[in-house]
Specification:
Structural class: mainly alpha
Largest sheet: none
Oligomer: single chain
Radius of gyration: 13 Å
Distance between the termini: 28 Å
Strand content: under 5%
Order of helices and strands: HHH
Length: 50
């Protein structure tokens, strides 16, 4: 059985990369160029994590 754990600081870059990869596909399917998750920076993600 898997458990959900809070992300650690070292997890943030892989999370951001996965987010961009996933939302790039969503944007393509929707026919749009920009979605907020595609514009998020590592600094913004770190601030959310605090």
């Amino acid at each position: 059985m898997n458990t959900i754990q809070q992300a650690e600081k070292e997890d943030l870059i892989p999370i951001l990369k996965l987010q961009v990869e996933a939302f790039t596909q969503v944007a393509k399917l929707m026919g749009v160029c920009e979605l907020p998750p595609l514009k998020q920076t590592i600094e913004e993600l770190q601030k959310e994590h605090e």
